[in-house]
Amino acid sequence: MFTSVDDVSARLAGTGYLASPAVATTVFLAARLGKPLLVEGPAGVGKTELAKAVAQVTAARLVRLQCYEGVDESRALYEWNHAKQLLRISAGRDESWDETRTDIFSEEFLLPRPLLTAIRGEEPTVLLIDETDKADVEMEGLLLEVLSDFQITVPELGTVTATRRPFVVLTSNAGRELSEALRRRCLFLHIGFPEEELERRIVRLKVPGLGEALTASVVRVVGALRAMDLRKLPSVAETLDWARTLLALGADTLDENLVRDTLGVILKHQDDIQKAAAKLDLDAL
Amino acid sequence: MTAVADRITGLAAALRAHGVRIGTGETVDAARAVEALGLADRELLREGLAATLLHGPGQRALFDAVFDLYFPRGIGGPEDAPRDRETLRDRLAEALAADDRALMARLAAEAVDGLGGYGSSPASDGWSAYQTLDRLRPQTLLARVRADIRGRAGGPGAGFADRLLDDEIRHRIEEFRRLVGAEARRRVAERRGRDEIARRAVRPTADRVDFLIADRDQLTELRRAVQPLARKLATRLAARRRRAARGTIDLRRTLRSSLSTGGVPMRPVLRRRRPVRPELVLLCDVSGSVSGFSDFTMLLVQALHDQFGKVRVFAFVNRLDEVTGLLGHGRADPDGLSARIRAEAVLTGWHGSSDYGVALGEFTERYGAAVGPRTTVFVLGDARTNMSDPNLPAVRELARRARRVHWLNPEPRDRWGTGDSAAPAYAELVRMHECRTARQLSALVAGLLPV
C-alpha cells in the first residue's frame, strides 16, 4: 500500500491532509502489519478526515459504519430481506419446502451492511467505523471477530472470510471507555492538537487568502486558548472557522476589538468566552 | 537483531512495571513495527512503538520517558562543549528566542555534562537534573528572551499575539527543563543500568501518584483527568446497575404463581427494582495535609452527579460547612477550588488544624437531616485528630442513620494508628479503606458507590 512513512505523508498531503509524523507512522504501520487503527482525540482534529484521505490516496472504496446508541447486528453486519423472502415463498407454490428453504437463504436475499460489505469486497477497501464509543458494549463484542480474523459468520451461509483485508479505521471521542479487548486488537493513535508549525501549514492550505502574519497570530492565540482550562478547547476545525471569519471580515492584523468580537467563533460556551477574555486582557464584554 | 529484541522486551517490562498492561502479542507487534520502520529515524521508531504498545493517551508521557532510556539519543556526553555557565546561558537564551528544539536538546546535554555531575568515586557519582537547573537557572532568562524577541520583531506592539509571549517563553523554558531531566536520567542510566532507572526515576502516570506526596503539577494533571475518569466510572456504574436490575427471586410471588402449576414453581418471579437514584453525602477534610485528595474526590463526585438523586458535599477543618453550591456546574474552576472553599465557607474556629471530633459532632447536630436510610456517606480524611477527642458517638450515630458509611483514608494502611491517628477507632465503627492514588480511588468508587 505504502512504501515508507515519507510516502504516506507525501501522498496524504497530496489530498490536502497534512499528517504529523505520528499520524503518518501509524498509518504506515497499520497498512504494513494489517491491523486496525484506533484513532482517539478531541472533536474536530480530523479523525474521520484521515480515513477519507487514506481511502482517496489508495484509490480504495470507503465503507462507513456510523455508530450510534443502539446500533446492532442487523445495522452493522447483515440482514435477511424478509419482504423479498415472503414474495419468493408465495411465488413458488408448487415447489417442495426443501427447495424453497435452500433458496430463500441465499445471497440474493441477503442485505449486506457495512461490515459484511467491507469484508466481502474484492477491491481495496477502507472501512471506517465512526464514533465507536457511541455504540453499546455488545457491539464491541461483535467487532472483535471482525477485527481480529476479518471474518463474519452467517449461520445459514457459513463463514465469510476476507479475500482482501480492508484497511480499518475506528474513531472514538472517548465518550465511553472502550474495552481492553478491542484496544488490544488495534494500533492506537491519539491525534491531539497539532504543533504550532503544522497548524500554520494547515491554515495556509485550507484558507490560502489569509496573510502570513495574521495566520501566525491566529495560531498563536488558539494555542494560548488551549493552554487554558476551558470546558471545550478550540480544535483545528475552530481555528479554520476563525481564519475564514477573519478573512471574510477583511482583517489584516489581530487587535483587541477584533478578537473580542469574534471570540464566539472559537469558543462555544459563555463562561469559556468570559474566562478567555479575562486571561487575554480584553475589556469586559 | 537480538540486541534490538532485548531492548524491546526490556522496554515492555519497564512499562509493565509501571502498570501498563502489555501482552506478548503487543511485544511481537512492536518488533514487527521496528522491522518495518528500521532503526534509522528515532522519532519514527518512538511513534511506531507507541502505536503498538500503548492503548490509551494517558500513558504517553510515561512511555516517552522510558523510551528515552531504552533507545537513547546517544552515548556519553557531548564532545568539545564549553563548560562555562555564562556561555551556556547566552546560547540557551538564543535557542529559547528562536524556539529551536534541536539546539535546546543539545544545550540540555551540554548543561548536564558541564554542570550536573557530582561525586568523584565511581560508586557514588552521578548526574543531577536538579543541580544542573539550580546552577543554570533558565527561568531567570525570561526577561532577556522577551526583550530579544521584541527587538527582533521591530519594537513593541508587534500585534495582538504579542501579549501571549511571556506564556510562550515560560512554556519553552519548561520544555528545556524536561529535556534536562531526560538527559540526566539517560546519563545516570548509562552508569547504573537502564532497568533500575526506568523503574525508579521515571515519574509514574498521574493516577498512580500518592495523593499525599503529589506535587502541584501532578495535582493539576489529576484534576484534568477527572472528566475522563468520571465517564469511565459512569460506564461501570451503568453496567452494575444493569446487572442489579435483574434482581433476586421474589419468593412470595414465585409461590403465588406456582399455584397455577399445582404448586410446582415452574417459573421464578424476579423481584422488581424501583429505579430510585441513590443519595450521596461527602464529608471532606480540606486541611492542608489532605486537601489534594479531598479536592480530587469532590470534583470526581461532582462530575458523577447525574448518577445520583442528590449529592451534598460538606467540607471541614475543625468546623463544618456545606460547599455543594461551590462545586456547582459552570462554577467549578478546578484550580481555584480549594481557595474558594476556604474563602467562602466557615471551616475553622479558634485554630487552623483539623479536629474530627468537633467537625463530625457539628455535622450530626446541624445537618443530621441530610442523612437518611437511602444515603451513602463518604468520609474523606486521614483521621488525624491532633490529639483531641475523636467523638466516636457521632460516628456511631452517623453509621446508624445512613445506609452505608465508607471512610476513605489517603494514608498507607501501616501508618493508621500511629501518632495522633484515630483511624483504628473509627475503622471499628465504619468501613475504612486505604485510598492513596487515583487508581485506588477509582477502583473504590466503582465498587462502593451505591447503584
Automatic annotation (TrEMBL), chain A:
Coiled-coil stretches: none
Span of domain AAA+ ATPase: 33-197
TM spans (from-to): none
Pfam families on file: AAA_5
One annotated GO molecular function: ATP binding
Stored SMART domains: AAA
PANTHER family named in the record: MAGNESIUM-CHELATASE SUBUNIT CHLD, MOXR FAMILY PROTEIN
Stated name of the protein: MoxR-like ATPase
Lineage: Bacteria, Bacillati, Actinomycetota, Actinomycetes, Kitasatosporales
From TrEMBL, chain B:
Pfam family, one: VWA_CoxE
Protein name: VWA domain-containing protein
Originating species: Streptomyces capoamus
Taxonomic lineage of the native organism: Bacteria, Bacillati, Actinomycetota, Actinomycetes, Kitasatosporales
